[in-house]
């Protein structure tokens, strides 16, 4: 008499680890981009917020990025591409 229980799933948040092949100067990135906050006294990584697609990223000096908030692989890829654009633009501003 037991009914089978069938759970339903919905992906609401993907967390991914990304490695970019470059060192990140977190201080200059934060100074040159309004999207990046860095307070080394509180946390060793900088925080990058992307609006479209909505995502938050933790940036670390050795090029590691932790991305959270996307809801699909496609959104994740778009968010990382947008982050790379921001990192390149901030790096050029500093050069």
Question: Would you kindly provide a brief summary of this structure?
Answer:
By secondary structure, this protein is α+β, with helices and mostly antiparallel strands. It has two helices and five strands.
Describe this structure in words.
The chain is of the alpha+beta class and 95 residues long. It has a single domain, classed as TATA-Binding Protein (2-Layer Sandwich). The protein contains two helices and five strands; from the N terminus they run βαββββα. It has helices at residues 26-32, 73-94; strands spanning 14-19, 36-37, 46-50, 55-59, 64-70. A five-stranded antiparallel beta sheet has the order 1-5-4-3-2. Strand 2 (36-37) and strand 3 (46-50) form a beta hairpin. Helix 1 crosses helix 2 (73-94). It is elongated, with a radius of gyration of 17 Å.
Keywords:
31% helix, 95 residues, alpha+beta, five-stranded antiparallel β-sheet, TATA-Binding Protein, 2 helices, 26% strand
Uncertain runs are: none
Return the CATH class. Alpha Beta
Known CATH architecture: 2-Layer Sandwich
Calculate the mean pLDDT score and round it.
91
Query: What is the CATH topology descriptor?
Result: TATA-Binding Protein
Give helix % range.
25-40%
Helix-strand makeup class:
alpha+beta
Biggest sheet descriptor: 5 strands, antiparallel
Oligomer: single chain
Task: Report the strand count.
Answer: 5
What's the helix-strand series? EHEEEEH
Helical segment count: 2
Given the C-alpha coordinates, what overall shape results?
elongated
Report the end-to-end length measured between terminal Cα atoms.
72 Å
Give the total of domains.
Answer: 1
């Amino acid at each position: 008499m037991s009914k089978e229980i069938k759970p339903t799933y919905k992906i609401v948040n993907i967390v991914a680890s990304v490695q970019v092949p470059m060192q990140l100067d977190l201080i200059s990135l934060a100074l040159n981009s309004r999207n990046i906050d860095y307070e080394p006294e509180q946390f060793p990584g900088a925080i990058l917020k992307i609006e479209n697609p909505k995502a938050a990223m933790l940036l670390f000096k050795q090029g590691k990025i932790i991305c959270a908030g996307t809801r699909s692989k496609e959104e994740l890829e778009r968010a990382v591409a947008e982050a790379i654009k921001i990192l390149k633009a901030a790096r050029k501003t500093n050069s």
